[in-house]
Design goal:
This protein has 180 residues and is of the alpha+beta class. The chain contains five helices and ten strands, in the order αααββββββββββαα. It folds into two domains: 102 residues, no CATH class; 61 residues, no CATH class. It has a three-stranded antiparallel β-sheet, with no helix packed on it. The chain is elongated. The model has no long low-confidence stretch (mean pLDDT 87).
Amino acid sequence: MKFNVKLENVEGLEKLLDEKIYRKALQRTIKRMGTKFKKRAMKEVRKTYNVKAKTLKAHIKEHMSKASNNGIEWRFSVTGRPVNLIHFGARQTSKGVSVKVKKGNGRRVIKSAFIAHDSGGHKRVFMRKGKERMPIESKSTLSYPQMFNKEIIDKAMKEVEENYEKEFKHNLDYYLGRLK
């Protein structure tokens, strides 16, 4: 995830100010807007999907660095494979396993599924591949990157765009106030 923000009416601002002050204000603004983006995106994902914030946060990486065009770059990435159904409140019932993937929907029973420990000792939801006892397969659903769909990213970007100018002005005032 990469986004660009264009500042308007500040063409000569960089030349008027000390380069160090301008850069610090810009860097602090980008970092705060990145954090705001991450929080909003996570909040939107959690409104839709039945996933814990701690689990979601473990799959998110953010990084800030200097860009090649003498600017500052903030990166946001989500990693992960398809998530086993055990992470969506799986409960064993007499007919199978009950799970709730989306918050708006009710619980759904997956017939003939069962909860067991895998070879690593972790609980998982499994189903048999045929009538025989073996082989069994792990039941998974969408991955964490798939949860961050276009609609969720757009909502988070809208909040960043609305607050960027105000945040930059605040940070610029802060660093200029420290000069006195």
